[in-house]
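Tokens as discussed.
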């Protein structure tokens, strides 16, 4: 008998505890970070399931990354071991641990909000910062 691959986590509605980022959201988050790595902080080419990033949020992200002084890299699989989602009654707040060329796992996180819609989950990017 062969072992099946581990299943990806589901989005958990738990007001009391954080849970891993849902497996269904991970490709979208990888693409957002891939765009950030390429310098497209406003997501000029839209990412399905992601709200347009406001000019104010783009300014915050660009400024914070410049002040931090490290180069973002694409998300490795290890980021999902420490990134979390917390149900907040109407949405999930998410914290995705970011990686840099200089440090590997960094102190930076991408903070966002995921809501359920009839068309599927919808992500809003809120900021990048060091918590």
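Sequence:
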């Amino acid at each position: 008998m062969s072992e099946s691959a581990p299943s990806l986590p589901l989005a958990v509605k738990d007001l009391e505890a954080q849970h891993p980022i849902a497996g269904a959201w991970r490709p979208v988050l990888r693409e957002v970070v891939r765009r950030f790595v390429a310098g497209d902080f406003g997501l000029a080419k839209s990412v399905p399931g992601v709200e347009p990033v406001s000019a104010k949020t783009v300014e915050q992200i660009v400024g914070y990354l410049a002040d931090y002084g490290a180069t973002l890299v694409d998300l490795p699989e290890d980021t999902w071991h420490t990134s979390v989602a917390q149900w907040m009654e109407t949405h999930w707040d998410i914290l995705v641990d970011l990686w840099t060329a200089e440090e590997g796992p960094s102190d930076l996180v991408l903070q966002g909000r995921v809501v359920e819609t009839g068309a599927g989950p919808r992500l809003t990017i809120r900021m990048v910062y060091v918590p």
